[in-house]
Amino acid sequence: MPEAKPKLSMILFSGDFDKAMAALTLANGAAGQGMEVTIFFTFWGMNLLRRTTLESNRFLEALFKRMMPVGVEKIGLSKMNFGGVGPWLMKKLIRQKDGQTAADLFRMAMERQIHFVACEASLKLLGIRPDELIHYDHLQIAGVDQFLQNARESQISFFI
């Protein structure tokens, strides 16, 4: 029987560009070394998984959904966001240095079949429906119990 791959489990709580870059860099690095990687997206991290915003007839849900960015291309910086100019400047700097943006790293994570788990409780709380999420074969919706089971089996765990 083949030996099980070592595992890395990560919680991505933040939806900030710089923090998403750190999480995705770590995830891709681990996958590149042959590890099985799972990212549990919760609260603001869920914005990376969103592809659209569907209407809600609940006022607070509708308000939150309109204020939150949709997708990895729209996320802001945690510091020096400058009303949205900060991410544009950061992307320009990354391109000048032949680096990869958060969107590039997100696509690479999907190519490397990194497992994405959308937090079921966060979806409910924020009023995000499953059909608002990206289409990805390795995306599942699950609760914290699923993450904890995966984390127990992992050699490395992160919270970002």
From TrEMBL:
InterPro entries in UniProt: DsrE2-like, DsrEFH-like
Domain of life the protein comes from: Bacteria
A Pfam family recorded for this sequence: DrsE_2
Descriptive protein name: Peroxiredoxin family protein
Lineage of source species: Bacteria, Bacillati, Bacillota, Hydrogenispora
